[in-house]
What we know:
The protein is an alpha+beta fold. It has helices at about 10-20, 55-70, 80-85, 105-110, 145-150, 155-170, 185-190, 220-225, 245-255; strands at about 20-25, 45-50, 90-100, 120, 125-130, 135-145, 175-180, 195-200, 210-215, 240, 260-265, 275-280. The chain has a domain at about 5-170. The protein contains nine helices and twelve strands. Strands 1, 2, 3, 4, 5, 6, 7, 8, 9, 10, 11 and 12 form a twelve-stranded mixed beta sheet that branches. A hairpin with a 7-residue loop joins strand 11 and strand 12 (about 275-280).
Amino acid sequence: MDLRPDQLDSRHRHIVDTCEPFVISYPANYDALDFAPMGFVIPEHRRYTATRLSSRDVIDGLHHLDRVTFGDQEMRMPRWVLFDCGEFPGMVFGFGRAARELPMAVREAYHVVDRDEAFVPLSMWVAIPCAEPDAWFGHNLSSANLVLKVKNALPGLATLTKVLGVGVTQAKRQYGATQWDSSSISLHLRLGPMEVLSAYTPAHTHPETLSYLIQVDDQTLAAAISPRKHSEDLSGDRIIEAGDSQAIRDLHDEIESGIRWQMVRAEKRADGPQRLHLVRLPA
């Protein structure tokens, strides 16, 4: 489903008007990718290959972005992880600008103070293909709004990056993992309900990580970046608070026993931990 810029909401229209989309992948993967997701063309000069030295600047920029986003969460990516897991076998999609178009504080954070023409990635969604047909695992999602600060922020940047990134992969099933207290859960839910595949995941650095599956629907993707219509928040059959370790373990035990649960809403609260609403799925 293609969209025109005037069919986007104002936040996302501003991003496509002021930033360029880019992708990084190995050329042998190109036939599996859509370089015009929802009609928004990724120009050829922004299709990078990680094995070429000419891509070094934009890849360095991804690591500066990753450091700002995840450096305090013990999840910063070594360079080899991004190459082995994303840039070569999968893809990285995002938006960026030339350094000359950015405030000096942002240029300092990206180490491009003296290079006006350097292309600076301001967001990225890293995705890895699964052996399962039409299935991709979302490895990393981040935006530079922490660096851009309020004055220069790009609201909706992470959402637009993930929606169009999923479009690039042409995925029908999108897997991922995130923490129960993550503010990004509400963003993921804009792409569709999330079936919880594990509630407690000690294989991860953070055991209270949930893994999930979203069944991708083109109309839902388009709605996530179009002007929003008011709708009532969904309530679930069950509510789990982030940080409630016993409830998380109980849910996980049920999932391992074969009971299926789907997350439908993330309720953020000023006076307490995030609440996650879930509904039980048919067996």
